[in-house]
Write a structure and sequence with these properties.
heterodimer; A: mainly alpha; B: 175 residues; three-stranded mixed β-sheet; two-stranded antiparallel ribbon; 7 strands; globular
Chain lengths: 122, 175
């Protein structure tokens, strides 16, 4: 599985970009991009072999990560696992804690302070 | 993303100066819990100092144009000045050992490029239990649940990145 320059150019055109502009905005060097584009396989060879053994394309074995919906589903699933293991916990408390763990500590602190100020809790 | 004006450059600068001056302190209370992922609310950031006579505190205050307000009959010691009124001074913690003992339970938490010592969630819970105030009792359930979530999450992250363990892990609920 390799990068299709044709597809990249097509997606660029759709957004009024050229490849140079795209690379600048994406903070990817031309060297890095064209060295990737020259490769026959941009996914690990072991994954290619697994896909070949299964007789499917590599893309069949991949899934999107880090989409908002994916993140919330993963978070809800983890909260579910924890509350099944610890029936005494409040699932909402667990879910909120997990949500905060995906943020930087300073952002967690800001949230706590902002809400504290809002509700005048001491 | 939370509003960055509520804990911005001024507050960070004070903490940075304290670290630079090698002042021994740690973040405690609900701010410590929040930094570790507990969904709590708080109005101030409690800083527990090993000793208030550390001259580094004065130097750090000078850098941020803050001042130390000595205790009176009705108030404890305080900091005054823009950006540092958010910090409360703590000299002892209910139900916990001394500063040096509790430092062993503290963890380093990054605040941008700065790393500060923060009392562990377990010890925050212990101090809230010992304090026994109504507002602390209300928070205990949230803190205990958060502790379970945080530790479970840490374990699952380390399981994903480390070799397999044979024994399953089952922490006990701290409530």
């Amino acid at each position: 599985m390799r990068i299709s320059l044709r597809k990249v150019e097509y997606e660029c055109r759709q957004r009024g970009l050229n490849i140079g502009g795209l690379l600048r905005e994406a903070a990817v060097s031309r060297n890095a991009f064209y060295s990737l584009a020259r490769k026959d396989y941009v996914v690990p060879l072991s994954l290619v072999r697994i896909a070949e053994r299964l007789g499917v394309s590599v893309s069949t074995l991949l899934e999107e990560t880090d989409t908002p919906v994916g993140r919330m589903k993963a978070l809800a699933a983890e909260a579910g696992r924890i509350s099944r293991l610890y029936p005494e916990v409040d699932r909402d408390n667990v879910r909120h804690a997990l949500l905060l763990l995906s943020e930087k500590p300073v952002e967690r602190l800001r949230r706590a302070l902002r809400r504290g100020r809002l509700f005048d809790i001491r | 993303m939370a509003d960055s004006s509520i804990f911005g450059e001024r507050e960070t600068e004070f903490l940075r100066e304290l670290v630079r001056q090698k002042v021994e302190f740690m973040v405690v209370g609900l701010s410590a819990a929040a930094l570790q992922g507990a969904p709590v609310v708080t109005q101030d950031i409690d800083l527990w100092f090993r000793t208030l006579s550390d001259p580094g505190i004065e130097r750090a205050l000078k850098k941020v144009r803050g001042v130390y307000v000595p205790p009176t009959a009705s108030t404890g010691p305080m900091f005054a000045g823009r950006g540092i009124e958010l910090f409360d001074i703590v000299l002892r913690m209910d139900g916990l050992g001394g500063f040096d003992e509790e430092k062993k339970h503290a963890i380093k938490v990054p605040l941008g490029r700065l790393k500060v010592l923060v009392l562990s969630l377990e010890r925050v819970i212990a101090s809230k239990k010992a304090a026994g105030r109504e507002k602390d009792k209300i928070m205990l359930k949230v803190l205990a649940d958060a502790l379970i979530a945080v530790r479970y999450h840490e374990r699952s992250v380390s399981r994903r990145t480390a070799p397999r363990r044979r024994k399953p892990w089952h922490p006990t609920h701290p409530s």
